[in-house]
Amino acid sequence: MIDLEDGKFKITVSIILLKENKLLLQLRDNTGYLDGFYDLGVSGHVNSNENFKKAAVREASEELGLKISPEKLVYVTLIQNIRDNYIYIYFLYNISKNEEINIKNNEPNQIKDLLWVKPSSLPENSLPHNIIALKNYESNILYDIIYDEIGDD
Questions:
Q1: What is the pLDDT of residues 132-146, one digit of tens each?
Q2: Is 88 exposed, middle or buried (0-12, 13-18, 19+ CB in 10 A)?
Q3: Model confidence pLDDT, tens digit, residues 37-86
Q4: Are 23 and 40 in contact (CB under 8 A)?
Q5: Residue 85: what pLDDT?
Q6: Domain 2-146, what architecture?
Q7: Which residues contact 109 (CB under 8 A, 6 or more apart)?
Q8: pTM, entire model
Q9: Residues whose CB falls within 8 Å of the CB of residue 7, separated by 6 or more in sequence, listed in order
Q10: Domain edges within the chain
Q11: What residue stretch is flagged as signal peptide (predicted)?
Q12: How many CB atoms lie within 10 A of CB 125?
């Protein structure tokens, strides 16, 4: 978290895992935040004294058992959620056709399902900031701001 005069910013990292034009999603469950919505394949908070890429690599290992080199992560975008004081940082990991990966759900108490989908066929219950991040990726937008989240008017 980043301390501000009037509060704190929470920082999360996410990895857009792409393989053969499909991306991996996880169905959130028992997390206390937007359960029942699809998140990107890897997503989690940054710990103190941890850089963003290392946090993403740690989350990939914790959640899916993936061993990713930080050098293989490509920065995509940053989205600042003004109302909730969140900063979402996104990386891309493009899994090559010949690359053997073994993805397993290491957190079945928080990840109800894993799903590979085409970016054009996202489930309706996908997290809105992730939809924005994927559009930013397609349009090469490196920074964006949102003012609300699900349930706001």
A1: 999 999 999 999 999
A2: buried
A3: 999 999 999 998 999 999 999 999 999 999 999 999 999 999 999 888 88
A4: yes
A5: 87
A6: Alpha-Beta Complex (3.90)
A7: 29, 30
A8: 0.90
A9: 85
A10: 2-146
A11: none
A12: 12
